[in-house]
Amino acid sequence: MPEHTAASRLRLSGLCFLLQTLIILLFAVLARYSPDPCPPQLNCSLRNQDLAFQQPPGFQDAHAQVLLSFGLLLALLSRSGPGSVAISILITAFAIQWALLLQGFFYFFLNGKISVGAQSMVSADFCTAAVLISSGAVLGRVSPVQMLLLALLEVPLCTLHEFILLSLMGVRDSGRSLTVHTFGAYFGLMVSRVLYQPHKDRRKREEQRDKGHQTDVFAVFGTIYLWIFWPSFSSSTTAHHDGDNWAVLNTYFSLVASTVATFIFSPLLYEESTPRMVQIQDATLAGTAVMGMAGEMLVTPFGALIAGFLVGLICPLGFRFFTPVLRSRLKIQDTCGVHNTHGLPGVLGALLGTLLTLLATADTYGYRLELVFPLVAQGSRTVPEQALLQLGTLPLTLLLAALGGCLTGAVLKIRVPRCSPDGQCKENAAFREVPEEGSEPSANGKEELGISTLV
After folding, report:
1. What is the domain range of residue 213?
2. 16-45 confidence digits (pLDDT tens)
3. How far apart, in whole angstroms, are the C-alpha atoms of residue 141 and residue 79?
4. What is the CATH number of the domain that holds 398?
5. Pairing verdict, β 113-116 and 31-33
């Protein structure tokens, strides 16, 4: 056993050394700082007004959202603990570098070099967010080496998917309902499906929520970070950045309504008069995810409130009824509930964005039509054509996520990075630093609501 433990440590150390060395060499040859925050070949609407990437707050909010909210919420699972936060920071550090390089070839390649700036860093943060969402579906059931390999394989697929949707098809998805939430969730779910091992009964305990004080403490801080940073995070790629930014306002309206919906519905499903903080956190996630595509569109305040309220009702229903079906019928072990907090809200957000696209006219949008739908404003595309493309990207996203997840899961099942047959290999020790006393299932044996740990 000591030999196996040493080999596990060296395997992760060696892989990190190899990947970081390769990235350093690639940066040395290809990457340079960008003299212009918006390269000429990019389709940046109204370049002189697009100042968010030049201002430190735009970058800081996006980066803080990925690092603080994602990393902090990873500690919610009692069997994961702070060790999972360490692994999430490793994934974040690697994925950002890897995404900067790969996205640079698609968006920021100038004169044979990749231009690196605040805008490219924000774009890399979005890609990293998708990877962290995917890792939530398999958290605690794979080794750190496998998590790193997941990031290595998902970043290229996520980058390609984003390029197809946003650049080739001209789809509007500023808050990333499709490219981050939907893609990340269903990519991770398919990886989980391929890695499903029914004989490991002990894994059921990993899907039970910790009733201890530590869980709610992490949920409190994580939810606060979401409320502070997410509206500006979801609007960091919009074409208009002023005090009247629709994406910020719509996101706020949606998350407050989804939070109130949790207080209405949770007591009906669970024997608790007041929802726990993890349930409020899940509602916050769902409320912001549903505004990903539609946030910059003409949702109106009451429309954003309705959307947030409805998704706030759907999220607890998913945890109560659909998560057991995923595990028992579809053989998908969704450790952190990413399907209910990212997948379903992302799909609903795409449908809402399609509906609002049909209402995009010069009378309703005014000068914003050129900011939100530049091709429609220029006459290159009609409103029905734009709406059809917005809708068509949903099945395309699900298809690419499913295929990519199956491919990645197959790679992770290769014997070299795989855990030992008992599923408790020493490589997973980093995920189990917190004592297991608080991780017992609830006394009534019911499935608990709110096991999400990822933004």
Report:
1. 55-424
2. 999 999 999 999 999 988 775 454 444 454
3. 10
4. 1.10.3430.10
5. parallel
